[in-house]
């Protein structure tokens, strides 16, 4: 089969198209014929050798995909050959930058009619992360004001819609007028352009938009120095959910920014959640149901063929995309 492989850690140039043997479905696994694979920050970290669970090269990256069941292993009874599915697998290798991938059945969810496979490839990581953080951890309600950092990213664009659909007031934070305007189209009620309000001015703007009270929830998808600002943006009894450090820099925290507010700091990491027993299938099915019903729009900005994975990673790392980047795997 065709795949994209990493033979050594490094920049996007180490993503090399190759031919490798077809995988087979072991007991408890599903063999997925991949139609589309989402491109994520985790993939870039795996490629660079800084992902916390990355093995050693050679590696096939890709932690989410959608496609069709090609075969099922012994003991799998709830999925069948020919069924349209989405899948994630940040725990095992190889990944989804390939024509075929063998995945544990507990990480594969069926797709309803009305959900395009390209859109479905964006659900298992970015959308699932946003859903879990807002619905399960922060427990967002219509009484909340929610700040979404990096609101034009895959996670951010999902979070804006999920929070708005829950009835919350959404403040979208992004790095350009174009990105904040786009976040407003997705349902944000107010926006903060960090190119116009850098560093502490970003905090001041959020406080102004909340009449000095601070937000009830801040979804911090950036980390690094931005995490300290998130703590200052939260109000009394608020919740900061931290799910990334794309800045790849230390976060300096002053405990006085959150403990006097009786605020909560919540951490989220999807792979470790699965390792400790989380079954993502019910949440994935709920997300897919809402996408099929038209409740959520899955923004896929760029679709590139599998052999252009390098270009996909280059675009991802420029951070100028709005929504998801997806690799299309054309059948031969």
Beta-strand fraction estimate: 25-35%
Number of helices: 10
Largest sheet: 7 strands, mixed
Low-pLDDT regions: none
Question: What is the terminal separation in angstroms?
Answer: 10 Å
Categorize the overall geometry: globular
Elements, N to C (H/E) = EEEHEEEEHHEHEHEHEHEEHHEHE
Helix fraction, binned, reads: 25-40%
Structural class estimated from helices and strands: alpha/beta
Radius of gyration, Cα only, in angstroms?
20 Å
Strand segment tally = 15
Mean pLDDT: 92
Account of the protein in words:
- The chain has 10 helices and 15 strands.
- The strands form 3 sheets. Strands 3, 4, 5, 6, 7, 14 and 15 form a 7-stranded mixed β-sheet that branches. It has a 6-stranded parallel β-sheet with strand order 10-9-8-11-12-13, with helices on both faces.
- The longest helix is centred in the middle third of the chain and has 15 residues.
- The protein is globular and about 60 Å long.
């Amino acid at each position: 089969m065709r795949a994209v492989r990493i033979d050594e850690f490094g920049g996007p140039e180490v993503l090399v198209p190759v031919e490798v043997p077809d995988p087979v479905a072991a007991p408890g696994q599903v063999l997925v014929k991949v139609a589309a694979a989402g491109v994520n920050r985790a993939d870039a970290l795996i490629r660079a050798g800084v992902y916390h669970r990355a093995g050693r090269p050679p590696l096939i990256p890709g932690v989410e995909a959608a496609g069709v069941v090609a075969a099922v292993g012994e003991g799998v009874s709830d999925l069948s050959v020919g069924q349209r599915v989405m899948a994630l697998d940040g725990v095992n290798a190889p990944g989804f930058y390939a024509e075929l991938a063998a995945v544990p059945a507990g990480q594969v969810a069926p797709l309803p009619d009305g959900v395009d496979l390209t859109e479905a490839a964006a659900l298992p990581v970015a959308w699932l992360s946003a859903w879990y953080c807002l619905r399960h951890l922060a427990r967002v309600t219509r009484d909340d004001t929610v700040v979404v950092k990096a609101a034009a990213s895959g996670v951010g664009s999902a979070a804006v819609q999920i929070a708005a659909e829950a009835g919350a007031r959404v403040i979208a934070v992004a790095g350009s007028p174009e990105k904040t305007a786009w976040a407003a189209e997705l349902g944000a009620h107010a926006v903060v352009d960090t190119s116009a309000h850098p560093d502490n001015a970003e905090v001041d703007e959020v406080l102004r938009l909340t009449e000095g009270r601070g937000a009830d929830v801040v979804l911090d998808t950036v980390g690094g120095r931005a995490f300290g600002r998130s703590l200052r943006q939260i109000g009394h009894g608020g919740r900061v959910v931290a799910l990334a450090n794309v800045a790849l820099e230390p976060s300096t925290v002053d405990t006085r920014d959150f403990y006097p507010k009786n605020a909560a700091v919540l951490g989220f990491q999807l792979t470790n959640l699965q390792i400790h027993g989380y079954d993502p299938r019910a949440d994935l099915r709920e997300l897919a149901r809402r996408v099929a019903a038209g409740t959520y729009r899955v923004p896929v900005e760029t679709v590139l063929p599998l052999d252009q994975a390098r270009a996909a990673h280059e675009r991802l790392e420029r951070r100028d995309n709005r929504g998801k980047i997806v690799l299309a795997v054309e059948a031969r």
